[in-house]
Amino acid sequence: MTEIKNSKHYDLEERTLEFAKKVRSFIKNLPKTTGNFEDEKQMVRSSGSIGANYIEANEALSKKDFAMRIKISRKEAKETEYWLKLIDVNNSAELETEKQKLIREAVELRKIFGAILEKTK
User: Fold this and answer.
1) Which residues of the chain register pLDDT less than 70?
2) Which domain holds residue 19?
């Protein structure tokens, strides 16, 4: 039973890492506008923070610490979703499709962290 639980938390660590990498890759192809530049900086921070806080949660010293880190991961996923919605893709259908995929993943991550949080109560 422990092995299954461990593989699941490592899968989520990997999933959050891949999400942060995909956000960074997406940013490389965006139009270079002042608005995008500022939003990109915020998006890089928040997307990376999702996984970083999840890793911290897995090393938590208490249930309260675990719950706090999961809340932060959920908050950062929501923030990343917000920045993605603000990004200007300059009417590029390809970039818009990629943006929508990233938004869906941010929403899924937020929901996963919300479910984890509910189970800790």
Assistant:
1) 1-10
2) 2-119
Instruction: Report pLDDT for 9.
Output: 56
CA distance 78 to 110: 6
pLDDT in tens, 60-91: 999 999 999 999 999 999 999 999 999 999 99
The tokens describing 38, both together, are 């500022």
Give the total number of structural domains in the chain. Answer: 1
CATH number of the domain where residue 96 is located: 1.20.1440.60
Does the CA dihedral 19-118-60-71 come out positive or negative?
positive
